[in-house]
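Hey team,

Filing this mostly as a record. A colleague (T.K.) asked me to run one chain through the structure pipeline before their review meeting, and I want the input and output archived in the tracker in case anyone asks later how it was produced. No errors, nothing strange. Just documentation.

Input sequence:
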Amino acid sequence: MELMDKFSKIDFERDVISQIQIYLMNLLNTQDVIYNVDSEVVNEINSSPYCKTLRFVSERKDLCQAYSRELSKSAIYYKKPFEDICPGGLTLLSMPIFLDEHTVVGAHSVAISNTPRSKFSVYDIASQFNIDAHILWDAVKKTPLVPKPILKIAREQVISSTELMSKVLNRIYTLKQSEATMAKKYHAIEEIFKSHNISK
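Output structure:
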C-alpha cells in the first residue's frame, strides 16, 4: 500500500469537503465521516437524531466510533470500498479517498440505510449502548425515513461524492505544489541577483 508520508501536512480543505458532505446528507439524512490516512476524524456530520443519540448521548458511544474507524482502516489499507452493518443497525459504506490512482489519503464513511424501525431491534441496540430504550426510540421517531428511490441510489451517490472529494484534493494539492515550486524558483533568482549585486 502506498500512503503519503507527509499527509498530515496537507490541508484537507475542510470547508470544501464539508459542502460535499452536506449535499450528501441533504439526500440521506444519516451520518457522514471523513478520516485522514491515520483514520483520525477530519470532519463529521450527523443529520440523524438516531445517530446523534448513539454517538453523543449513549454511554457506549465508543461502539459506533470504533466500528466506523475500523471500517475506514480497511478501506484505506486495501484501497477498496467496505460495507457492513454497524452496531447501531445501519448499513455503513466506507470508501477510500485517493490523491491519485496509487495514493490513498483517507476514507469517506457514510450510513446508507434507514434506522431500524422494529421496537425489539431498537430496544436491543439500546441495551448494547447502555442508553434508555425510550430515549433511543424517541430518536428513531424523530429521524425521517429516507425514501426508497433515494436509498436505491445512495451507494452511487457516496461513490460519486467520494470521487469528487478525490478530484478536489488532487487539484488543491497540485496547485499548492506548483506554488511551492514557483516560490523556490523565485527565491533562487532573488539570491542570484543579491549575489550579483554583492560581487559588484
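Quick notes for T.K.: The longest helix spans residues 148-199. Residues 1-9 have pLDDT under 50 and may be disordered.
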